[in-house]
Design goal:
Blueprint lengths: L5 H22 L4 H15 L6 H8 L1 H12 L3 H6 L1 H26 L4 H11 L4 H11 L5 H27 L8 H21 L1 H11 L2 H21 L4 H11 L6 H25 L3 H6 L1 H25 L4 H10 L5 H13 L5 H25 L22 E4 L3 H12 L4 E5 L2 H9 L5 E2 L5 H6 L7 E4 L4 H14 L4 E6 L2 H10 L3 E4 H16 L4 H25 L20 H7 L14
Parallel strand pairs: 1-2, 1-4, 2-3, 4-5, 5-6
């Protein structure tokens, strides 16, 4: 028997660590992030199950890339423009003020000169996007006021890595092949290219793939877009996460947003978990042990300085005390971009020594590990202020009504809802129907309503009513069962295929069902009677009588079987004359009459 491949063995260790620690730490109220970190420390530094944590970290950083793509999907360009003051105002103030304070703190230690202090200070000013966004996601706070302000700071930090890398080149002295202006031009050109491609090419690409019905091709296209945009930005000197974020923003207004989010989410979740484990793997216990005294002072100093600066600028910019506390305790750690900055500065040989770079990386890693505890501690400093939410402007996602299937029936029902002033999120699995609807000004999303992840992405957690208007009985029943099992809070309204389907749906316990042809058939028959000379009031009474009989017959059939209630049907041949008997029969109709006896037509 051959020995297992080392790659598969390490993969099993990583996945096993996530499976074991995440539920335990979640149950203890410590959060999954801390659980993943603990798994990494045990697998790597303690048990030495995986030796090369840096290699794992390099691959797992794709989790951060996917995370930024999903965040971008939820931010339309108009929404991003509305956040510009927080991004460039609050974000730049945080980086500059925190960087200057930490630069001074690094300089007074005497371990590095002013140039190294500058790199160390501004490198430590960058927070961890992965840790912070995962904690916000776990707590459901991504769309709160403080969550959005935190994200704005993190987004600016991702942008700041470009000038900081250029700063290393400047401080280390001019190089023959260094041209900061050319690098800046390349970065700007890459961003412009991303915007053009996202606006004019991505949506047509997904339209073509969606029409083929090849689900695996849609997943492959989503991965291609994310990784392709990330690679393009990396080649231009920007971060991969920034490229993924921009591609997400470009697709935020696309009808395929929910489907893309559902396809990417599993990859994002697994890779981000491995990223946190890899951080634990990379923790150098020997470095921490040898420099324990310095680290014991450096980590609290780092987190306190960043926390105080962030709290101050948040309060000055209008945040409430509670929000400022939450942000200050969420973003006091060093970030993954600090790894890049310190490693680059060490490789130049003139700014940071390898030992200092390793020490700074250890400080960043330990500050990351302490972040979940800091967030838990922040709750003790909150006052009794209300938890303020911001308006979500996601084009109807998270509306009171989630409609699955935009058939003829659904289109008419949607008109009633929209006319009543209600927002409706509509998803459909037909690319042609989406294209046709958009030509008339309707906005519907591409997605398979029988998939739990698509329903979640479409906001079913916040929906009060799920309206199912799909064409096929089997698909309808599958969606009904899924919603009843996973989202029992939502009421279910269903368009049934035929009478037998209506009976089956009632047995399944849906809140309301209606055959597509019932009301139109009743109206059609009533109008025909009126044309034949029956008065409008009498024709209306006949229609109501037939509707009442149909409902009573359905109730009988639901409990006694499809053959029940046949005596309630009008089965006699229709005579063209004298047209008096039906009229008189209707005149004596009363709600207390015994409707079990057949009536003449």
């Amino acid at each position: 028997m051959s020995a297992p491949n080392a790659f598969f063995t390490e993969t099993l260790l990583l996945l096993g660590g996530a499976v074991v620690t995440a539920p335990i730490f979640k149950k203890l109220g410590l959060g999954t992030v801390l659980g993943y970190l603990a798994a990494g420390v045990v697998i790597g530094p303690v048990l030495h199950g995986i030796g090369d944590g840096e290699a794992v970290l390099g691959v797992a950083e794709l989790g951060v890339v996917f995370l930024l793509f999903i965040i971008g999907l939820e931010l339309k360009p108009t929404r991003l423009w509305q956040m510009r003051k927080d991004i460039f105002g609050l974000g730049s103030a945080q980086v500059i003020l925190t960087g200057m304070a930490l630069t001074y703190a690094a300089w007074i230690t005497g371990m590095v000169d002013w140039r190294g202090s500058l790199i160390a200070g501004f490198g430590l000013a960058l927070s961890s996007t992965a840790f912070s966004m995962q904690i916000l996601d776990d707590q459901g706070d991504l769309n709160t006021r403080y969550g959005q302000r935190s994200f704005s700071m993190l987004l600016f930090q991702d942008l700041a890595i470009v000038p900081l890398l250029a700063l290393i080149t400047i401080l280390d002295g001019p190089k023959d092949d260094a041209n900061p202006l050319a690098d800046l031009a390349i970065a700007v050109s890459a961003v412009a290219a991303m915007i053009v491609v996202g606006r004019y090419l991505l949506t047509p690409l997904f339209q073509v793939i969606a029409r083929t019905g090849a689900r695996e091709a849609m997943i492959a296209a989503a991965l291609f877009v994310v990784l392709g945009s990330a690679t393009l930005m990396q080649m231009a000197g920007l971060s991969m996460a920034m490229g993924a974020f921009l591609s997400g923003v470009m697709l935020a207004e696309s009808s395929y947003r929910h489907e893309l989010e559902a396809d990417i989410e599993p990859f994002r979740g697994v890779l981000l978990a491995i990223f946190f484990i890899a951080v634990g793997l990379s923790l150098q216990l020997q470095v921490i042990y040898d420099n324990a005294l310095f680290i014991l002072m450096a980590v609290p100093v780092l987190m306190v300085i960043k926390g105080l600066v962030i709290y101050a600028i948040c309060r000055l910019s209008g945040s409430a005390h509670n929000d400022a506390i939450r942000i200050a305790f969420l973003l006091p750690q060093g970030g993954e971009f600090g790894f890049v900055l310190f490693s680059t500065a060490a490789s130049t040989g003139g700014l940071l020594s390898d030992s200092i770079a390793s020490l700074l990386i250890a400080v960043v890693t330990l500050s990351m590990a302490l972040t979940p505890l800091a967030v838990a501690l922040s709750k003790r400093l909150l006052t009794g202020e209300a938890h303020e939410e911001i308006d979500e402007n996601f084009e109807g996602a998270g509306a009171d009504v989630l409609m699955i299937g935009f058939s003829r029936f659904g289109q008419i029902a949607a008109q009633i809802l929209l006319a009543g002033g209600r927002d409706v999120t509509v998803i459909d699995f037909s690319a042609d129907r989406i294209r046709q609807a958009s030509s008339f000004g309707f906005r519907i999303y591409f997605g398979d309503g029988s998939r739990k992840d698509v329903l979640r992405s479409a906001g079913i957690d916040r929906a009060k009513i799920v309206v199912i208007c799909t064409h096929t009985r089997e698909i309808t029943d599958k969606i009904v069962e899924l919603v009843q099992t996973e989202y029992s809070h939502a009421r279910i309204f269903v368009r049934s295929y035929d009478r037998i389907h209506s009976i089956a749906l009632r047995k399944m316990g849906v809140d309301y069902e209606l055959r597509e042809t019932l009301e139109s058939g009743l109206l059609f028959g009533r109008k025909t009677l009126e044309e034949l000379g029956i008065g409008e009031a009498d024709a209306m009474a006949i229609q109501e009588d037939i509707r009442r009989r149909d409902e009573q017959r359905l109730e009988l059939q639901t409990t006694e079987g499809p053959q029940a209630g046949t005596d309630m049907l009008f089965s006699k041949p229709v005579k063209p004359e004298p047209l008096i008997k039906p009229k008189r029969a209707v005149d004596v109709v009363d709600e207390n009459d015994d409707l079990s006896e057949p009536a003449s037509v």
